[in-house]
From TrEMBL:
This is NAC domain-containing protein. It is found in: Nucleus. Residues 14-169 form the NAC domain. The lineage of its organism: Eukaryota, Viridiplantae, Streptophyta, Embryophyta, Tracheophyta. GO terms for cellular component: nucleus. It holds the Pfam family NAM. GO terms for biological process: regulation of DNA-templated transcription. The keyword Kinase does not apply. It comes from the Eukaryota. Keywords: DNA-binding, Nucleus, Transcription, Transcription regulation. The keyword tRNA-binding does not apply.
Length: 183
């Protein structure tokens, strides 16, 4: 993971009005692949976080110093070390992330042919327990590289990562997140 000085330097050189809005292709091929290859540049703009150690509303402000995305933005990106097992535990102290629907293949078209470059799961955050819960407005898009990319021996270590984009889908003023900023 990049140190705080490197991250702060990267943030300072961002031009006025800069917004981090990568495409799915850029997320998978540029950021997530580079993270797996151990290229530190990827960690300069997207922090590595144990997403399941925090409630979703805490994430935008808790990690704002290590991200080019600011708390008042509407989408936040994080690398998360993939937990082993087919049925990964995605619980926090106050709730859990639940996958909705099927896994979506992310494809690119080049020269008339399509190629799968990764996959995406969409998850919703539920407050409470598995047996007694309430659906919230928090959504996660969880991006994965294809398994064959991870097994090609190109990866820098045995760790596997996902790249997660988190957003609150209700139309809430950014001021609501200010309650989580340090005083």
């Amino acid at each position: 993971m990049a140190d705080m000085n490197t991250i702060q330097a990267a943030i300072r050189i961002m031009p006025v009005g800069y917004r981090f809005k990568p495409t799915e292709e850029e997320l998978l091929q540029h950021y997530l692949m580079r993270k797996h290859l151990g290229i530190a540049e990827a960690s300069c703009v997207i922090p590595e976080v144990d997403l399941y150690g925090w409630e979703p509303e805490e994430l935008p402000t808790k990690f704002s110093e290590s991200s080019v995305v600011q708390p008042e933005d509407l989408q936040w990106w994080f690398f998360c070390e993939k937990r082993p097992g087919l049925m990964r535990q995605r619980s926090t102290n106050g709730g859990f992330w639940k996958k909705t629907g099927r896994t979506i293949e992310v494809k690119i078209s080049r020269d008339g042919s399509e190629r799968v470059i990764g996959s995406k799961n969409i998850l919703m955050f539920f407050r409470g327990t598995f047996s007694n819960n309430t659906k919230t407005e928090w959504v996660m898009h969880e991006f994965h590289l294809p398994e064959n990319a991870l097994q090609d021996g190109l990866m820098s270590d045995s760790k596997s990562y996902t790249l997660c984009m988190i957003m609150c889908i209700k139309s809430t003023p950014a001021n609501e997140f200010r309650q989580y900023l340090p005083q």
